[in-house]
């Protein structure tokens, strides 16, 4: 137990040192922690698998992005940033639009703001059961829910039947959530099936609008669903840095900050 605890403490210390110094050699870390080079290489392999560092030949460098992991539903939060972003997205919607809405808390916040808007005549397509029910109960919108197997523990249907069901539609605007955005990697999510569903959603939309809190920028998740320049609007909060703004503007994306 003590050895395991020490190993975890050592790995955390390695991450802190690498983040501070930007790069370290295996031999330097072995001397510093009084362990073998093989032990350090095992530590670095585990840390890289966790997305915390990047290994190099004979050493390690600081990772220039953070890896995002999937959050279970009960720990998802409806933040003030989410609602401000959602409110800005609603301003892009026009009367008589046909919308396809993704799943997730950002999209749920968008649906809530849509209900409180002055828009009366919309057609909604979604695979999120909560969003579909909410909009059908609170508005007179025409709501179409794509069928499929419900993903256990989540309020949406998933699987290949969703992608097949979406293929027959065409919509004006697609509202998407994302777990992560990186200027080189693009938009990504931890779940493979969810990524494929998002891809299918994008394929049927004329205008793609992504809702993305600034805390998700410079992160990567397991599966990419869109390249950096494949979406038309990226809406985020004012905590975004000037460097991040410059990077996104260089992609010719319409960046909206709230």
TrEMBL record:
Which ranges carry the HTH deoR-type domain?
Answer: 7-62
Q: Which InterPro entries match?
A: Carb_Metab_HTH_regulators, DeoR-like_C, DeoR_HTH, NagB/RpiA_transferase-like, Tscrpt_reg_HTH_DeoR_CS, WH-like_DNA-bd_sf, WH_DNA-bd_sf
Q: Does the keyword DNA-binding apply?
A: yes
Q: Please name the Pfam families in this protein's record.
A: DeoRC, HTH_DeoR
Keywords of the record, alphabetical order, are: DNA-binding, Transcription, Transcription regulation
GO function term, MF aspect, one: DNA binding
Name of the protein described by the UniProt record: HTH deoR-type domain-containing protein
Organism in which the protein naturally occurs: Enterococcus avium ATCC 14025
Q: What is the lineage of its organism?
A: Bacteria, Bacillati, Bacillota, Bacilli, Lactobacillales
